[in-house]
Amino acid sequence: MNALAEQYVKLSLHLGQHDPLFVDAYYGPAEWQEQAKSSPKSLEAIIGEAQELQTKLDQTPRAIFIHRQLGSIVARAKMAQGHVFPFDEESKAIYDVVAPHRPDSFYADTIRQLEPMLPGSGTLAERYDAYRNQFVIPADKVDDAFRLAIERAIAKTKHHIELPSHESFRLEYVRNEVWSAYNWYQGNAVSLIQINLDLPITVDRAVGLACHEGYPGHHVYNALLETHLARGKGWVEYTLCPLYSSLALISEGTAEYGVELCMPHDERLAFEKDVLYPAAGLDPVKAEEFRRVLNLMGNLGYAGNDAGREYLDGRRSKQETIDWLVEYTLSSPQRAEQRIRFMEAHRSYIVTYNVGEDMVRDYVHRHASNEVERWKVFANLLSTPQVPSNLLI
Ligand SMILES: [Zn+2]
């Protein structure tokens, strides 16, 4: 089995030569990376070898994981050859899921409920923008607020999950990126977390980013995979995190669900009101109302998937997609354009966040009846071989 795992890792590194974002993190043998660079394989060879390797794998959880990852490799290699999959077919082939289709009326219902909560003049998207601006953390206070949020997230996570004693993260502030934050996992239980200061960071995002990128999200996931599987069992396939693969669905899904696991609604509201608003120099009097608005905005989460599907499948033009996003997600036109750039760059990756979150939540709630158990089930997801279809069981 170790030999098959090694072939999977090498094929991933070879694909990385054609698909530069494919390998998001790798801390396995450096010579394999060198080999992939010095003696490249054609996309056709990568597809053929991945498919052949799939036939050699049995039904153990470890083998099922590698089999699924190879499916992602085949799909991404075909895309690098120029093949364009329909959106749903692509998300199924790479991430093992198809996002639900929602009618416009579903979003229109939520928009109607938001209308009276967003005072002022102009379009509803403009009113939402103006409303939200009241809650933007001033640039010179972002670091204070973020550090307070991450401190709380670390304390909560450590109470429930045993982390490697040497784990740590570095924090950097950057600009000119399509994402709002990123975790670059470095290996040896160290993460580099970057936050993009170009996008205004509202006070609620401090907890969201601290949990998603750090604890119990990406940093914890990578550190646990490394500790329990890559080092603990010597399973080399976990020294590699391919971005466009089913692993990403679990990674983004656990990172998103990790926010509410770590900070359930009332606890989060109290923490924001008592700690984060004062640290950001904001008046907490509207904290509760803002949380209600954000909860309603959460209903619009799947709209991005629907917009991406219509746009990338060619049924709506760029301008029509911008207009649709403004109407149904209350994005500003600039933010809508930025979302389109993200869709163009990462295509069906956009479904990993919300479809992943809902799958992880349903799974955890089905297998646990109280907070302590929920953390246990969650920690197990982060430390064992998983494929998205496992989450449906
Ligand atoms: Zn993420």
Attribute tags:
two-stranded antiparallel sheet; mainly alpha; binds zinc ion; 393 residues; 7% strand; three-stranded mixed beta sheet; 5 strands; 2 domains
Describe this structure in words.
The chain has helices at 2-18, 30-38, 43-55, 61-80, 87-95, 104-114, 124-133, 142-160, 203-214, 218-231, 246-262, 265-279, 287-298, 303-312, 318-329, 333-346, 351-367, 371-383; strands at 23-26, 168-174, 181-187, 190-196, 240-242. It is mostly helical and 393 residues long. The chain is globular and about 60 Å long. It has 2 domains: 2-83, no CATH class; 104-392, no CATH class. Helix 1 packs antiparallel against helix 3, helix 9 (203-214) packs across helix 11 (246-262) and helix 14 (303-312) runs antiparallel to helix 15 (318-329). Strand 3 and strand 4 (190-196) form a beta hairpin. 62% of the residues lie in helices and 7% in strands. Residues 212, 218, 252, 255 line the site of zinc ion.
In a nutshell, what does this entry contain?
The protein is mostly helical. It contains 18 helices and 5 strands. The protein has a 3-stranded mixed beta sheet with strand order 2-4-3, covered by helices on one side. A two-stranded antiparallel ribbon has the order 1-5.
